[in-house]
Amino acid sequence: MNRNPLPSSDALVFFGATGDLAYKQIFPALQKMIERGKLNVPVVGVAKSGWNIDQFRDRVRDSLTQHGGVNEAAFAKLVGLLKYIDGDYQDPATFEQLRKTLAGAKFPLHYLAIPPSLFGPVVEALGQSGCAHGGRVIVEKPFGRDLESAQKLNGILHSVFDETDIFRIDHYLGKEAVENLLCFRFANTFFEPIWNRNYIDSVQITMAEAFGVEGRGGFYDQVGAIRDVIQNHMLQVVALLAMEPPTDTYSESLHDEQMKVLRMIPPLDPAHTVRGQFRGYLEERGVAAHSQTETFAAVRLEVDSWRWAGVPFLIRAGKCLQVTATEVLVKLRRPPVGKSLPGSNYFRFRVSPDLSLSLGAKIKRPGEGLESMPVELSAVTESQGELQPYERLLTDAMHGDAMLFVRQDAVEAAWSVVEPVLDDATPVHVYEPGTWGPGEADGLAADTGGWHNPQVSPASSSA
Questions:
Q1: Is the pLDDT of residue 456 over 80?
Q2: Which of 9, 31, 104, 258 is geometrically suited to a Cys-Cys bond with 398, CB 3.0 to 4.6 A?
Q3: Per-residue confidence (pLDDT) for residue 383, from 0 to 100
Q4: Kind plus residue range of the DSSP H or E element containing 138
Q5: What is the Cα Rg of the chain in Å?
């Protein structure tokens, strides 16, 4: 919740209205918002496609048909709210038309679902045209390519909008399962006494994808795994796991605690970083012939705080791995009487493709003696009625709730963490598709019992 509620947006403008992101994510989210009674303001799409409003409406229907289905009543209402402006983002006439279309709107929300190279020109044009007055802006990731470019982008944003009106969207933070990490930890008192270096041996986060770059080789070759998911998604999960309890559930308190964690992570050491590239990547369309872009990255870091000193945090993310799944494994130290027994207690948080919050424990094996055996106790195995990330985040931004968005200082702190291992700071090791990445990554986790490899049931993998 916001401690000081802001006025709700009275218009939603999204640039890139005919693009892939709008087609796959935004239009389905808008229909869901209407179904839940969360959207009743003009929705203005802006793009340069040579379309008219009827073609735009057809695009919306096709999007809904392909991604979740058409709710005829909600679609009819959405069509009534839709407006479309066809124009070049660098043409002042486009923004003059937008200003006229927004006549009467005092608090417009502008969503930049466009390539990062256009963020600056569009934001500056919003300011020059008066369209930004009283408004807010949502910026899609990536927020720069490194610390310097992130600082430059933030400078442009702040030249037009106040920080409280800037919403840096990381759809990962809108996932129900990621929010459950935060809730499960702070809503249960049994965690606090053991959630520290005295009881926790190591923390692992794995984000595995069984697929490759899916025809997006030209884009991905400019990014790589570290920029694509570790600098943002994975470090945000580290912050949620390692942060101190916020003083309240308003956004600034939560962001302050996340920021403290990011500041306590030393810059990554190339010696504790392994990059990989799946065999066949160089044959993907758009990929440079001798590309050194990583499709896999594994890093080892520490959080230099009183709570976490000495506890290794191991992160890996990659494409063309064995399964598609994201899991967090928090391994506890072995009890004194269990030093000679294999395994240890753990908490396992499955983030995707399904939600699972589980505790690894030991019980007596049936039969004579006191030999133990491992069991897993599940607190949550599924979640019903959850909001999809873009539905939740768009709704929050329209209400001025920044809880699940990323603050400027956190963006820059995360870039500072990964800066030493960007680009060609470490060699790239080739790995076979369908494996768990290059064998060189095994050494990072050797002293913690090795990597935990998520398993996906047939039902989950087909969901």
A1: no
A2: 9
A3: 56
A4: strand 136-140
A5: 23
Q: Answer whether 58's CB lies under 8 Å from 84's CB.
A: no
Question: Cα(119)–Cα(16) distance, rounded to whole angstroms?
Answer: 11
**AA identity, residue 264:** M
- Spans of all domains in the chain: 11-140, 173-388+407-461
Interatomic CA distance for residues 247 and 307, integer angstroms: 17
In the structure, what pLDDT confidence band is assigned to residue 2 with cuts at 50, 70 and 90?
very low
Q: Which helix (H) or strand (E) holds 408?
A: helix 408-418
Query: Which class is 11-140 in CATH?
Result: alpha beta
Sheet holding 372-380, edge to edge: 372-380, 356-364, 346-352, 325-332, 200-208, 313-318, 296-301, 273-278, 428-431
Catalytic pick among 110, 171, 233, 452 = 233
Model confidence pTM above 0.85: yes
Strands, sheet with 166-169, edge to edge from the N-terminal-most edge strand: 82-86, 43-47, 11-15, 108-112, 136-140, 166-169
pLDDT for res 462: 37
233 is catalytic: yes
Domain covering 173-388+407-461 in this structure, CATH number: 3.30.360.10
| Residue 319 tokens, joined | 């494409």
* Residue closest to 175 by CA, chosen among 380, 407, 414, 355: 355
Q: How far is CA 411 from CA 47, 127, 228, 242, in A?
A: 28, 23, 13, 17
226-242: pLDDT as tens digits: 999 999 999 999 999 99
Burial of 375 (0-12, 13-18, 19+ CB in 10 A): exposed
